[in-house]
Amino acid sequence: MSAQHSYPVPPQPAQHLDKPGLEADMQQKPEFLATDYAGSGKLAGMTALITGGDSGIGRAVAVLYAREGADIAIVYLNEDQDAEDTKRYVEAEGQACLLLRGDVRDPAFCRDAADQTNQRFGGIDILVNNAAYQQHEEKLADLTEERFDLTMKTNVYGYFHMAKATLPYLKRGSAIINTGSVTGLQGSEHLLDYSTTKGAIHAFTKSLASNLMDQGIRVNAVAPGPVWTPLNPADAPPDKVAQFGADTDMKRPAQPQELSPAYVFLAAPCCSSYISGIVLPITGSVGG
To answer: Which spans of this chain does the record mark as coiled coil (predicted)?
Structure first.
């Protein structure tokens, strides 16, 4: 965005959303259109499959990928309104969008999503693993095994399932981009299970990059700090939502459009053909 762009600062609306949270219901809408970003065909003729692409970071990435010339497949859980909105934004960029409703914890669904994407577009060039589950818990004693399992199965198994499912359709020059988190770099007192999964995603990224190097498939991760998406109003108490991002050096949360250009960079062979196995922190703070 231009240097003149002014981003919202806390306090945000002290709003709570029922899980999984709809972007359409947020009182303060996330900024994702990146109107100052001009596409230049970096992804022309490519196809990207994006999990959690209905809202937040995933929506912003879908819009910029389409602006760069890629067709888009969106995997989402059950947020039909958000998914349809994202499809309209992708189509407004002149590209096709396929919506795939299902749960990334289910390996059969992931295989079907990859198959449908391949059938529709004739291949897959980019996988963005972005779907996530997050729920604050103050005390370890209150964190149940069922909740820990849900977070792990969504955030780690989901990435594993999608990577395996898309691998038959990826080719030399393809890219996998995983969404990590600053919590996976630093830990988080009240996001014990979530931060554990994000640390695992960072290790998975580096390991998978080595594993797929001989096939010419690059694997990288982006580790965002606080980003204004439905994930947090659907999780944190309203008073915490109001001050979300205030503890960063920039004193505010990121907007999704501040993250999406990094996903373009890591997807486009013209930008990052010699980069694999990195975890890129975009945290709003010096030192990550």
So the answer is: 126-153
